[in-house]
Amino acid sequence: MVAALLFAFSLALYTRTMAPGMLMDLGDPGDLQAAVAGLGVPHPTGYPLFVLMGWLWVHLLPLGTMAYRLNLLVAVFGALAVALVYLLALRLARSHLPAVASALFFGLGYTFWTQTSVSEVYTLNAVFVAAVLWLLVRWGQEQTAGEASHGSLSVAAFVYGLGLAHHRTVVLLLPALAVYVWLVDRCVYANRRLLARLLVVALIGPALYAFTFWRLLAQGVPASEVVWGTILGGSFVGSLGQTPDWQNILWTLPQTQFGALGVVVAVLGLLTLLARPATRAQGVLLLLAYAGVSAFCLIYRIPEIDPFLIPAFLCLAAAVAGLAFWLARLPARLRPAGELALAAAPLLLLGNIALVPGYWSDDKGVSEARARDVLSRPLETGAAIEADWNTGTALRYLQAAEGLRPDLEVLLVRLNSQTEYDRLGRILSAGRPVYLLPGVELSRVAAPARWERLDTLGGMIRLTTAPFTPSEHLVDATLALQGFRLDGDTLTLLWQARGQVPGDYAVALDYFDIAGGLLAQDDKDPTQEPLYGFRSSRWAPGQTVADLFRPVPTDTVYVRASLLGGTGHQGERFGQAIVFQVRPADLSGVGNLRSVSFGEEIVLAGYELTGTSPLMLTLYWQPLRAPGRDYTVFVHALDANGELVGQADRPPLDNLYPTSAWRPGDAIRDVYTITAQRPVKEIRLGLYERSTLQRLPRADGTDFVAVPVAASQRSAP
User: Of the N and C termini of the chain, which has fewer Cβ atoms inside 10 Å?
Assistant: First the structure.
């Protein structure tokens, strides 16, 4: 009866403070609303039980919109968790008012209350945690009373398995559960038949991941990515191993949930349970469960870690009931007042009723409005839309819940999904129209495409296929620049991992003009997605990653790319810097076109000779193939007697763009200043290998080109 009253009281509060509808501006809640409406798969780890239960609920309950119904279901889960915390605390203390105090400290706490107001997964997770702990304590008390049945333990294993099908953090409870079973009845571990039964019933819940596997496989997601990236949450591994924030996890966030008084009361209750031999096993269970969850949160760094602590808060709230044993020592006339004061203490948290709506009020409906605008546009049937996560989930929700433009395919620009990137490439190759919404950062999504802005469609960008210019420049054995593309002021680099890249690096670009003068610099993390995603250490061998830079200076001809930093090597360069040409020199106005080949590798396409003293010789080179070696240009000035009177030997562009970096399609403009001792009649030029001084031969057997100097240019200093 008390549990039912607590359920009703909590639900009344939660429905008063919950969000009224769509929550697409908040990220995860909107993603879950869209997934439930369309029976899809939300962000990792997929949450199949939540999706299936939510889909049934929103289709069977004729009340409000689908988004409202799902918000309501989360509130119902929250109220159910409060009732279960009461039942757990009642098992621990065998006293109603202290158990009520436990339930209210949990249910009225700010962190848990906020999660009842939006479509999130944490209230259902709390239901499973509370249910498992309640069933285990019940089983332990049954064993102490001499009952031979293990029915409660089997049910606990089944519920635990359901928890695994929902939120993987229930794994953190496993050490606490195992120790508690050992403390109560270590013979369980010798009973193979019982252990087999517990394992079988615990695996029933995780079998629901077959739904996640089936749905994503049907979308073309590779099985390995479904298992690792989604079901196992491998995409979040990069957030582990962070420097622990002890104060935040162990004091600031618990205080936010319970208030300072609540934290003190919970700790005292836990110490009381641990001090009594009759309740020590239950105290150990709560302590280890709290410690397991808190330890994980200490090393897991994400922007909003507090909901992950809810199972730990639940354990602390349940421990509050342990004070019942301390209150039992009071004189009989004072005991009721003490228990009543304990039960009333959490009512100080009722002020959260004014704060909780602020948790979701930042959702101004921007993503929903944008999605409705997009779906009202005259897009071709079967077009694909690349959208940011919030707008994309709003589009998917409106398609599933309201039946708007179900023919359109919505692709989310995920921070770390190679599958989405590959899918976009297949769609473009098939000739289907693809649109990119305004505000979406053109990073990897731009790799297989060019784009044109269509202002008649609200500024959306129409993507079309276009090739990259191949480059094949090795940074080191594990990483290469496979190609690039320059579109106006936007440069896209196409990196390819050739092995396991050993660290996380920043890309530093230097932009040079046609004469090799430095124009600008640009440094950033690859793909500018440092939180979850495409850090270079996580690039799989063979994977290509497009990296966007803009604006590129108008006069840029050469780009030098360096990778800096890396794990434990802040500021150091990784591998070798690479240089490539993005705009070939214009040969259309060159006066002396020669097309003289050296070594079947490099062609002197033409030259220009100007000035008198000094002479200015401008050479135009074109590689027939990638030379692969560094050559030096020799420029020798001869007088009328054939004697050397001046020379200028150096690598092209003073080694800014060495010949080993040249690629077919390049056109290099290279200027030499010649100061001579006497009038120059002829200039001879060619190429030689820097290490051996061996000249590159011409097809006619010579190894130079003779450039005559006009009589009017033969003056000397």
Answer: N
